[in-house]
Amino acid sequence: MGLSLRQRVQNELQRLKSDGLYISLKVLEAPQDAVTRVNGKDVVNLASNNYLGFANHPHLKARAKEYLEKWGAGSGAVRTIAGTFTYHQEFEEKLAAFKGTESALVLTAGFTANQGVLGSLLQEADITFSDELNHASIIDGLRLTKAKRVVYRHADAEHLEELLKTNHTEGLKLVVTDGVFSMDGDIAPLDKIVPVARRYNAVVYVDDAHGSGVLGKLGKGTVHHFGFQEDPNVVQVATLSKAWAVVGGYAAGAKELRDILINKARPFLFSTSHPPAVVGALIGALELIQKEPRRIDKLWENTQYFKDELARLGFDTMDSKTPITPVLFGETKAAFEASRMLLERGVFAVGIGFPTVPKGRARIRNIVTAAHTKEMLDKGLEAYGAVGKALQVI
Ligand SMILES: *Cc1c(COP(=O)(O)O)cnc(C)c1O
Question: In a 3-state reduction of DSSP, which class is residue 370?
Fold first, then answer.
């Protein structure tokens, strides 16, 4: 007699609960915006990735509506069969032009983009060098390949160099890193990583989920921020789900990169393409980024203000250089308690503990957006002040 399904699920849920890893969903009762509603209460929202305030923007909604009316609700097939429309092509051409690359290919989401691109590029004789704090979708993407995996210490180009020196292959060497790290908000030191990779003939793969729309001129991303956008040995992957505020992932680079992905990326080959409204909204996002670059300045002004004021209150905001603003609480329980107390004071910010971050480094991860007003940020800071004192972290 094997285990019943119920026993399996109950055992696993019990294990998650006793390890303090059990997740329950928080439900938003109003659109994704700088102020939203949780538990029937209007709250200042510091929990989203809606960096530019696009998620509920009238221009994106108007474009989505227009494409919905013209093209219908669904796309009806995968891209390689009968699911590539002129609107997909239109967006990919505009995206490549914006990124200054020969081509771009869009996949369902950033998560599947990593699986598709890593899976298409890597073969058995290859070696990958991966930052220890890389995103789960990179880790899973690498696991799906037969390439050897070597992990380097977080953002440590010297350690990377030692490993490149001692791991040899006739195949491809691929250095893989987040552009901006999602939990700490620090920026991958591409100014050190790319030259090291060049010395050992390695290719650099940057997943810029949190850098795109945020870093570089017009938010073109971390690779632009460091000026490596024309290097054919730097592959850019990013998401359209964060600052771009809709959904999707993409790879931007040489024309052959797009060709190989069309032929080999399994999430591209075997999963239905984006529906018209999604692509319409993305076209709207691209238009708005180019028309209103001021939004990115506002994002950085808000970020600086919020970080400075938190530091003045006495909080440890770690080494973040971006709008991702962690506030360190230490023990997981303290971070979760702080989140609960903030919500009582009308501030929505989520606690993050082990195993997403190391033990003793539990935090609340705030993301400041361009849509926050000074009054909203001040309300957040006031709540932080009260909670920090109550929990004796300041
Ligand atoms: C969020 C994130 C992803 C996943 O992107 P989605 O479009 O939400 O699937 C991939 N990589 C990194 C680094 C991320 O932060």
Answer: coil
Strands 127-131, 324-330: parallel, antiparallel or unpaired by DSSP? unpaired
Token representation of residue 350: 């989520």
Express each pLDDT in 203-238 by its tens digit: 999 999 999 999 999 999 999 999 999 999 999 999
Catalytic residue among 173, 210, 224, 274: 210
Q: Is the CB of 239 under 6 A from ligand 1?
A: yes
Closest ligand 1 atom to the C-alpha of 111? Answer: 9
pLDDT at 125: 97
Q: Is-catalytic flag, 154?
A: no
Domains parsed from the chain with CATH numbers: 21-56+293-390 (3.90.1150.10), 58-291 (3.40.640.10)
Q: Check: CB of residue 33 under 8 Å from CB of residue 371.
A: yes
Active site residue 4: no
Is 90 exceeded by the pLDDT of residue 20? no
Where does the pLDDT of residue 147 fall: very low under 50, low under 70, confident under 90, or very high at 90 and above? very high
Asked if 242 is an active-site residue, the reply is yes
Pocket lining: 135 vs ligand 1, CB cutoff 6 Å: yes
Query: Against a cut of 0.90, is the pTM above it?
Result: yes
Whole-number Cα distances in Å, 2 to 8, 9, 10: 10, 14, 15
Distance 269 CA to ligand 1 centre (A): 20
Mean pLDDT estimate for the chain: 96
